[in-house]
Write a structure and sequence with these properties.
By secondary structure, the chain is an all-beta fold. The chain has strands at 34-39, 51-53, 68-74. It has a domain at 34-74. Pfam families: YjzC.
Length: 79
Amino acid sequence: MASKPTPRPAPSKGPSKAPSKAPVKPGTPAPASGQYKPVGPKGGNVGSTEITAVQGKPLPPTDKAGQSWVLVDPTKHKA
């Protein structure tokens, strides 16, 4: 009687491309290109403003002190 082959796990597709929720302070180089929105000191939404940032370029100042930027929509491009 032939034994059944053991199933192999599906191959990994590499690291996840989900947006990072870690806040980035103004003036810090953007860790990834994409759309960023400002968040308050406790991480709450502070408005509908979004900016486009390029990876490695400094993020602009926020409207108020204590705010930072969060990546909400990373740039989608083929490498």
